[in-house]
Specification:
Length: 116
């Protein structure tokens, strides 16, 4: 899915895992596309939802709000949320908001290695 400033790619993986790769600018003008993609995934019976944020070039607090809501929605459905390789802008927001301990954050790795 491509809209102004954001690219979202979904990959269904074995064992009810989904990798969502987010690239570009995630801000008040683009975050709705990410929310829509995540809402579709909440309806599936996933065990793990991995958000690859390594290619996010800019981000604002709307991304943080979306991540917190995604974590809550996933947990309420028995699904774990993993943030993979947050870019420098995303890491800065997570650190500044003291949210690094709230999320499971893993470095860049092959998608299936996130299951560990």
């Amino acid at each position: 899915m491509m809209t102004a400033g954001i690219d979202i790619h979904l990959d269904e993986l074995p064992d009810d895992h989904v990798l969502v790769t987010v690239a570009g600018d995630v801000d008040v003008t683009t975050v709705a596309r990410l929310r829509e993609a995540l809402h579709v995934l909440y309806e599936k019976r996933l065990q793990r939802l991995v958000l690859d944020l390594s290619a996010v070039t800019t981000a604002d607090v709307t991304l943080l709000a979306t991540l917190v809501a995604a974590r809550r929605a996933a947990a309420s459905r028995g699904c774990s949320l993993v943030l993979r390789a947050p870019s420098r802008p995303v890491s800065g927001l997570l650190t500044g908001a003291s949210l690094t301990s709230v999320f499971r954050i893993v470095p860049a790795c092959p998608p299936l290695a996130v299951r560990v």
